[in-house]
């Protein structure tokens, strides 16, 4: 059982994976990265005979299938809001820190609260539109205006908000703020 579960949320191209990868490199064997999207993409890869590694990457290949994956995952969540959170955690390595790099919905936070209680720390990564566009973001109808991108827009109970815009906090400041949340581990 992890001592701390870091829940990261942010819009597409806000820099979640970049930041969580750096954090993992610093914490090494003290942490495990968990991706809620992995069970979704694994199912989709098997069902459609697609390349799972490409779906898990941050490239154009994934974008071709994003809308269909979102629609299917919404149907699954309607039946069981915790299905993907549970599946992602089932095979996670027991480490002191879990980094959940892709919290997207209030129900994701609810599931982790119900299962890990006071161990969770909620972190929102923000970046302005110009920065996100420079990283390859392009608004896509049916993707950027649905729950998978917008459900947490009005959520305000973050333990930490990081400005990852071009002129925002430096990587060192971001990592330092996160490490403060887990200093007892």
TrEMBL record:
Primary localization: cytoplasm
GO annotation, biological process: cholesterol biosynthetic process; isopentenyl diphosphate biosynthetic process, mevalonate pathway
Subcellular location(s) per record: Cytoplasm, Cytosol
Keyword check for ATP-binding: yes
UniProt KW keywords: ATP-binding, Cholesterol biosynthesis, Cholesterol metabolism, Cytoplasm, Kinase, Lipid biosynthesis, Lipid metabolism, Nucleotide-binding, Steroid biosynthesis, Steroid metabolism, Sterol biosynthesis, Sterol metabolism, Transferase
Top-rank EC class of the record's enzyme: transferase
Keyword Kinase attributed: yes
UniProt-annotated binding residues for substrate: 164
A Pfam family matched in the record: P-mevalo_kinase
GO cellular component: cytosol
Positions contributing to ATP binding: 11-17, 135, 174
EC number: 2.7.4.2
Pathway: Isoprenoid biosynthesis; isopentenyl diphosphate biosynthesis via mevalonate pathway; isopentenyl diphosphate from (R)-mevalonate: step 2/3
GO molecular function: ATP binding; phosphomevalonate kinase activity
Name of the molecule in the record: Phosphomevalonate kinase
């Amino acid at each position: 059982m992890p001592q701390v579960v870091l829940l990261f949320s942010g819009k597409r191209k806000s820099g979640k994976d970049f930041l969580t990868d750096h954090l993992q490199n610093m914490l090494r064997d003290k942490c495990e990265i968990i991706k809620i999207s992995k069970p979704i993409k694994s199912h989709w890869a098997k069902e459609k005979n697609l390349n799972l590694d490409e779906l898990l990457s941050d490239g154009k290949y994934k974008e071709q299938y994003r809308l269909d994956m979102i629609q299917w995952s919404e149907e699954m969540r309607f039946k069981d809001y915790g299905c993907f959170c549970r599946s992602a955690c089932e095979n996670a390595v027991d480490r002191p820190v879990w980094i959940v790099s892709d919290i997207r919905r209030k129900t994701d936070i609810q599931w982790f609260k119900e299962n890990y209680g006071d161990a969770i720390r909620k972190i929102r990564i923000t970046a302005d539109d110009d920065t996100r566009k420079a990283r390859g973001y392009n608004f896509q109808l049916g993707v950027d205006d649905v729950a998978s991108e917008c459900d947490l827009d009005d959520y305000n109970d973050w333990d930490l908000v990081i400005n990852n815009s071009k002129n925002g906090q430096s990587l060192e400041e971001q990592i330092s703020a996160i490490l403060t949340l887990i200093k007892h581990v």
